[in-house]
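quick q for whoever's on today - can somebody do inverse folding on this one?? i tried earlier but teh output was garbage lol. tokens:
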């Protein structure tokens, strides 16, 4: 590792031991980065230096920011961070907002100043925010004023956070007021190392405790120069749009990193349900769309109401893309959906084929710069046509923040993604299932144990078990099996009460859409919950209902 610019060494000190890192590959010429690198210089400042500052960059419903306008705001926020808020290189900053231009500007400003951006989903509650604050030892937060309530609740319990600065409320202490100070329009990027941490992205986790994934400055460019360059193949005239939150690395890549790397523009929607996404595509003439299979399915019945003829590329990730959805979308629009699998640990998509090599129903082949194989439980590669665990390596890889689970994800130099796959004789990878208990619903990763914990906080619940159930619309839904305490009746009213309780405790999208009341849960002799038995029971119930 090169000499770090970080004065606050927490992140580097919290990296896993080097022998636990995956093997990294930088075989492609475009993946050869200099030792000193601040990725914001390459994503934003370079366009100003080249005379392209007037090109459109970030598009909102009422206004467009050019590259120069975004750059000035980034500089002003970076000055606020360093001059007014005391940020030193290596400090972590929590970022909390819906998809917006200010969220992008704040993220880039933190990184340009040598800080480490830690974005959070807008729907997260105080308890979940507090976990990130404590795990990453975060003392400063920048927050959209509309999301300040949960942020302030988190401050009360974290015992770490020292200051919250909000934007959008127009107060004398707001971020905009601080940004308006004279002399704040210029800022020299911190002289960071290419392997300095600049982003900590939290996973949902399968144990109820999210894992912080640590990414370097070079990683931010590597995903652009591998997937973006070789698979997506967009150009500066493209206009990106999508539904994933910027706190998801799928959204960060698709709506910020990829367009900025090539000088293109991006449309940012605070809300992007299918109707609004279609309307925005038509209104802004978007050309590249990033969303989940669920959204593509939902949009099919609405296509006749909107002119989306401007679209030329559609990317799907977050859950497996069913072949019927691929075919229906192609039949209706003439467009082939680019399926892909990525992970927070790897930053973005590492298997996915360009349009010229798509095999409907398959995820595809490894992205140039990456290698993938299917292995058995011992890590040995299995013959083609054999189902096993997916292993991958490339220019990005897993480095957990102070977490013993590093050795589960990285084995023998390979990232073991937790997915079950089959590779055919042509080297094409076919998704089979998740290898763990993660529930993937409408593109969101939901950890069953976390939902169980929220349910158990209600006085009516004695025991519970949560699993994913197949659902035509959302891919999977969360189903809870609940054992009640004496004196409670398992009726519709209680179901609504429990659902409301979960929504108030954790992110609302994690609530159980189905609840079944049982007298006991299946357990092993040692008392461990047998979730596979619950899944079988859920599948049997669904089959019985369908017949």
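ok took a stab at it. sequence:
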């Amino acid at each position: 590792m090169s000499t770090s610019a970080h004065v606050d060494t927490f992140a580097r000190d919290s990296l896993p031991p080097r022998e636990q890192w995956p093997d990294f590959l930088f075989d492609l010429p475009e993946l050869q980065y200099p030792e000193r690198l601040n990725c914001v210089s390459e994503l934003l400042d370079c366009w100003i230096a080249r005379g392209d500052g007037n090109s459109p960059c970030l598009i909102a419903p009422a206004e467009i920011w050019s590259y120069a306008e975004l750059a000035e705001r980034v500089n002003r926020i970076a000055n606020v961070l360093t001059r007014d808020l005391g940020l030193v290189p290596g400090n972590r900053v929590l970022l909390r907002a819906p998809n917006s231009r200010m969220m992008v500007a704040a993220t880039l400003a933190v990184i340009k100043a040598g800080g480490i951006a830690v974005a959070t989903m807008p729907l997260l509650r105080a308890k979940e925010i507090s976990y990130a604050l404590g795990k990453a030892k975060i003392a400063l937060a920048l927050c959209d004023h509309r999301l300040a309530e949960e942020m302030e609740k988190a401050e009360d319990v974290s015992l770490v956070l020292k200051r919250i600065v909000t934007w959008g409320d127009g107060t004398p202490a707001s971020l905009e007021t601080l940004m308006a100070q004279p002399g704040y329009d210029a800022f020299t990027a911190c002289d960071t190392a290419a392997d300095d941490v600049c982003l900590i992205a939290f996973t949902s986790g399968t144990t109820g405790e999210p894992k912080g994934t640590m990414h370097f400055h070079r990683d931010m460019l590597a995903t652009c120069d591998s997937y973006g360059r070789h698979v997506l193949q967009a150009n500066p005239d493209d206009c990106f749009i999508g539904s994933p939150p910027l706190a998801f690395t799928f959204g960060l890549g698709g709506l910020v990193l990829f367009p900025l790397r090539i000088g293109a523009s991006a449309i940012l929607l605070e809300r992007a349900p299918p109707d609004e996404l279609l309307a925005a595509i038509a209104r802004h003439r978007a050309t590249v769309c990033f969303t989940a299979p669920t959204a593509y399915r939902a949009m099919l019945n609405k296509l006749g109401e909107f002119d989306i003829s401007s679209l030329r590329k559609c990317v799907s990730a977050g859950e497996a893309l069913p072949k019927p959805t691929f075919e229906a979308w192609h039949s209706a629009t003439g467009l082939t959906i680019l399926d892909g699998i990525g992970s927070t640990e790897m930053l973005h998509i590492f298997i996915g084929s360009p349009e010229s090599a798509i095999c409907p129903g398959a995820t595809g082949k490894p992205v140039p710069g990456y290698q993938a194989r299917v292995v058995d439980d011992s890590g040995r590669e299995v013959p083609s046509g054999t189902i096993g665990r997916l292993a991958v390596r490339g220019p990005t890889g897993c480095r957990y923040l102070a977490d013993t689970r590093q050795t589960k994800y990285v084995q023998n130099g390979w990232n073991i993604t937790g997915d079950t796959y089959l590779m055919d004789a042509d080297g094409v990878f076919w998704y089979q299932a998740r290898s763990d208990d993660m529930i993937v619903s409408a593109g969101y990763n939901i950890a069953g144990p976390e939902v169980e914990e929220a349910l158990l906080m209600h006085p009516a619940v004695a025991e519970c078990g949560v699993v994913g159930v197949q659902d035509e619309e959302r891919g999977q839904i969360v189903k809870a099996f609940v054992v009640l305490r004496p004196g409670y009746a398992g009726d519709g009213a209680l179901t609504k009460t429990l659902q409301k309780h979960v929504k108030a405790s954790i992110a609302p999208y994690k609530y159980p859409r189905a609840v079944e009341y049982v007298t006991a849960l299946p357990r092993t002799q040692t008392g461990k919950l047998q979730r596979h038995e619950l899944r079988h029971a859920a599948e049997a119930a669904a089959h019985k209902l369908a017949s």
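fwiw The first helix runs from residue 10 to 13. also The two ends are 60 Å apart (CA to CA). so keep that in mind when u check it
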